[in-house]
């Protein structure tokens, strides 16, 4: 895969190389837009390799009733969680890349087309309507608001650059896998023996 030239280049790797890295990784970071499949991928990899599954939504950001923890408390919680030896962390939040990326062995960027992400949030809402999904904090039943829909629809244009900047600043040559389709995600899971 192409690697950006320059001092702070992101070292993108292909699926086969990434699968080899994931097999031996102690700490994996999974980022991308809501609805793209970050949580599903993370949970499958966690089960396959016995890694602790950390959801930023569930374990860091949200409190019951869709109330957010303060930024300082969120950062403290992330600092505690990344101190563990073996984990896979699902969640984007570029403002904490400075502490999460250096601690990770590999970063997986689930960069699906927006139509896939929109379908993901709508189908998730239909599946969990009135209930809290496993990767969300207790007391936060599934919902889709216009604001959230707009966030997903404009994510690539408005937020992807922040992921790129964060990786350029903090990855330091760590491997970064970018998954751009469900087929690529299936290929990775098949290579890892984590497809089911």
From TrEMBL:
<protein>
    <submittedName>
        <fullName>AAA family ATPase</fullName>
    </submittedName>
</protein>
<dbReference type="InterPro" id="IPR027417">
    <property type="entry name" value="P-loop_NTPase"/>
</dbReference>
<dbReference type="InterPro" id="IPR052922">
    <property type="entry name" value="Cytidylate_Kinase-2"/>
</dbReference>
């Amino acid at each position: 895969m192409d690697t950006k030239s320059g001092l702070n280049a992101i070292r993108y790797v292909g699926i086969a190389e990434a699968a080899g890295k994931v097999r031996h990784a102690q700490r994996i970071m999974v980022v991308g837009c809501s609805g793209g499949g970050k949580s599903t991928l993370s949970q499958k990899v966690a089960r396959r390799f016995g890694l602790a599954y950390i959801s930023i939504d569930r374990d860091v950001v949200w409190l019951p009733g869709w109330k957010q923890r303060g930024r300082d408390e969120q950062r403290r919680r992330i600092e505690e969680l990344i101190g563990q030896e073996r984990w896979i962390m699902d969640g984007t939040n570029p403002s904490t890349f400075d502490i999460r990326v250096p601690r990770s062995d590999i970063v997986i960027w689930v960069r699906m087309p927006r139509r896939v992400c929109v379908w993901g949030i709508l189908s998730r809402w239909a599946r969990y309507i009135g209930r809290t999904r496993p990767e969300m904090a207790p007391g936060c039943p599934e919902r889709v608001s216009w604001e959230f829909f707009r966030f997903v629809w404009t994510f690539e244009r408005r937020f992807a650059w922040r992921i790129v900047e964060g990786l350029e600043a903090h990855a330091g040559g760590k491997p970064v896998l970018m998954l751009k389709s469900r087929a690529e995600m299936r290929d990775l899971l098949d290579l890892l023996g984590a497809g089911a």
